[in-house]
Design brief:
mainly alpha; Na+/H+ antiporter like fold; 2 domains; 2 strands; globular
Length: about 475
């Protein structure tokens, strides 16, 4: 389909949504559930086409998904109202769980063993060092942040450190998506993926520990024993359940094959997200551990991803689009200055820290030069941390989450394009004429090796159908 036709389709969809909104204003559209159905259909179709339009100008498709959400969301055109965005948000937990399952199934420790030294040093210096730097910067900027103004210095310091952790997470989804989209495979792409996964694995328990300590300090009482018990259940319990889920998936692949596995995986991700959180477990740790078991114990990570790739496509489109629609642009002016400052500090910290960690580890020059760019994108985990922070610290959490979402939204829009450019400049991105079943060994499924017009386009950790 030509670019002009795609633009016309998007315009036509906008006209349909205008008509739907007019009907709703006149009380002629039935119920909230009807709006939800219309919203899901609009998101899936419009974002799909806008993603392709973004691709034609050299941007990642997920940037198109995010842009669709921002434009169609409550603060601009209003095609997706607050209620619709809130209802569609149910897919977020499942999508994040699916992202972590995919990331875990990409973690082949045998293949990555030569890179583990680089990954460990980059995670330590680049990611954890930047989290500390962001926390200190937030504390220094507290006079410009109203939600810290009424806190004591000690309280402001511990809350700032937690905010530093909230602001630093990377996005395995973006790294996996751009690896698939560009066909990139090499030390830069592999080190970036390994680092964002390992760093996020470390940040999840660190966030839990830091939040628990900050809550105790603000409440004036800190029970180390009770805090330790809660953290042990949340972290160790999640890992144990994840190992069990991974064993079930591995057994399914061995004895049943891929038949029905896509629905089982989506169901497992939904249960993990909705039930696990109510049991004070961490859905991300559960599915990350499950993916690692399938890849490293059963050696079936690629088969697992191929089993659910088609079914996961709408989940990822909904996730990124709803994420864009959830950004409240009206709140950005109030936190614009500190958000930009923290954005710059985060970028400098990750770029310099990535370079320093890679250099200490003796990584190849292209890794030293480009791996920090792969640490810039943000998406699911950072948003989850921001929303969890808002729930954990009533009163100060909402404005703090607005600050975090401002930084995250800027990174979502800018960083994926920068990382794609870095993959191209590093020489690891494949061109369309080079597509073959062998250029994307970490992608979810083989590419159709035909003429350029039959090449399968990929987006996210999933493979999309031919046009």
């Amino acid at each position: 389909m030509s670019t002009l036709k795609r633009i016309l389709v998007v315009i036509a969809l906008g006209a349909v949504m205008e008509a739907v909104r007019s009907m709703h204003a006149g009380n002629t559209l039935g119920t909230r559930s009807g709006l939800l159905v219309v919203g899901v259909g609009f998101v899936l179709i419009a974002a799909w086409f806008v993603g392709r339009l973004a691709s034609t100008i050299g941007l990642p498709k997920l940037t198109g998904y995010l842009g669709t959400g921002i434009v169609a969301g409550p603060t601009l055109l209003g095609y997706l109202g607050d209620d619709t965005v809130r209802d569609l948000g149910l897919v977020n937990g499942m999508a994040v769980s699916l992202i972590m399952l995919t990331a875990g199934s990409e973690m082949d420790f045998r293949a990555m063993r030569p890179l583990l030294r680089s990954i460990a040093w980059i995670s330590l210096i680049g990611v954890l060092g930047t989290a500390l730097l962001l926390g200190l910067a937030t504390f220094v900027l507290r006079s410009t942040l109203p939600f810290l103004a009424d806190l004591s210095s000690t309280e402001a310091f511990v809350v700032s450190l937690v905010l530093g952790i909230v602001l630093v997470p990377q996005s395995p989804a973006v790294v996996v998506a751009l690896r698939s989209e560009t066909g990139a495979d090499g030390p830069v792409a592999r080190t970036a993926l390994g680092t964002v996964v390992l760093a996020n694995v470390l940040l999840i328990p660190i966030f839990a520990v830091a939040s628990a300590i900050a809550q105790g300090v603000m409440a004036g009482q800190l029970d180390p024993a009770d805090t330790a018990r809660q953290l042990a259940w949340e972290i160790l319990g999640s890992i144990a359940i994840g190992l069990g889920v991974g064993a079930i998936l591995a057994a399914w692949l061995r004895f049943v094959g891929t038949r029905g596995l896509d629905l089982f995986v989506l169901g497992a991700c939904f249960v993990s997200a909705e039930v696990g959180r109510r049991l004070r477990l961490d859905p991300q740790l559960i599915m990350l551990a499950a993916g690692m078991v399938v890849e490293n114990a059963a050696r079936e990570g690629g088969t697992l991803r191929r089993a659910y790739e088609a079914a996961s496509l709408p989940v990822y489109i909904l996730f990124f689009t709803v994420t864009g629609a959830s950004i409240h642009l009206s709140e950005l002016p109030h936190v614009a200055v500190p958000a930009v400052v923290l954005l710059v500090i985060r970028a400098v910290g990750l770029l310099a820290g990535g370079y320093a960690g890679a250099r200490v580890a003796g990584a190849p020059p292209e890794v030293q030069r480009y791996v920090g760019v792969g640490l810039l994108p943000q998406a699911g985990l950072a948003i989850a941390f921001a929303l969890l922070f808002a729930r954990t610290f009533p009163g100060i959490g909402e404005p703090a989450a607005a600050l975090a979402l401002a930084v995250i939204s800027l990174n979502e829009l800018i960083a994926p394009a920068l990382f794609r450019a870095a993959l191209v400049r590093s020489g690891e991105a494949a061109t369309a004429t080079q597509s073959s079943p062998g250029i994307t060994p970490t992608a979810a499924a083989p590419v159709d090796a035909g003429t350029p017009d039959t090449i399968v386009e990929t987006t996210g950790p999933v493979l999309e159908s031919k046009e």
